[in-house]
Amino acid sequence: MKSYFYISLLAIFFSCSHERLTEYTALDVRQKVDVEVEQLKNFIHPFNSITQIDHSRLAKDAGVYTPPSVVTIFSDKKINAQLLQRDQLIGVDLPFKVLLYSEPDTQKVTLAYTSAEFIQRRHALSGEDVKEFQNELGQVIKNFPETIYAKDFSSKVEEDYGLIVHQSTKPFKQTIVDLKSAILSQGDTQMFADIDFQKESKEVGVDIPPTYLILFGGPAPGGKAMKNTPRIGLDAFCQKLLVFEKENGDVFIAYNDIEAFSDLYYDTKTFPQMIINYRLGTTLGGAVE
Asked: pLDDT by residue (tens digit) across 186-233?
């Protein structure tokens, strides 16, 4: 019932600019986030939708509070393939991600996204390497007023910033199987989606070594870790676990350091984040040894 209410509000907003402003202002921040998320769905229509994760509602269902926060993940197979052909590790930052959220105790909607500059600096690429990524994502982002854009911290990012990489002692496919089993064995964790980048790349005529992305998360622990730092819902929740095999047969896994991103966006780290980082290291590291 609530979703129908928010969708009907969109029709009201488009009917008259003055009425739209009045109606929008009257909403609480959760409703405002929902309205902007519905707008985003329209703008990403040309892309392949991967998943949408409502952090705050999932956390609420698990008995935990976190501010309104919804991440939308969508994809362009050709752009992914071109970047992965340069370096498989870039897959940890693919595909496109947009987070609509509010900071604690505010009534303002904020929009954050993984930018081309962030990817360029983190993976030591050239501006030309990420040009198409920037252009395609820009076509979506430009539909929102710049006043709601989150502060850009890309200039603080250095090569390999916040990346955790482990080598697996197991073959590629077995590594994926064992990782998924280990993740689900946690009890408070769930899968959201996965992407076979190698398969998708072949569909657009590009050959890359085996590369696979697993999207997962724990609503309760994630909600606690995001309570005062909701922007980490862009990079750390859901957690993006990349599995890739190099041409020499070596298999690796890579994922984001939660504390590093909290430090990047908020200049702080919290105890719940430290706990999750430890759990990830133990669970994922144990699965590939």
From this structure: 888 888 999 999 999 999 999 999 999 999 988 888 888 888 999 999
Residue corresponding to tokens 């955790």:
164
CB of 99 closer than 8 Å to CB of 52: no
pLDDT, residue 19, reads 52
Q: Cα torsion for 244, 248, 250, 254, to the nearest 10°? A: -30
Q: What does the alpha-carbon distance between residue 134 and residue 25 come to, in Å, rounded to a whole number?
A: 32
Scanning the structure block, which residue is given the tokens 């769930």?
190
d(CA 125, CA 24): 41
Q: How many whole angstroms separate alpha carbon 160 and alpha carbon 243?
A: 16
Chain position carrying tokens 């921040």: 29
Query: Which residues fall within 8 angstroms of residue 195, CB to CB, at 6 or more apart?
Result: 50, 75, 95, 212, 213, 215
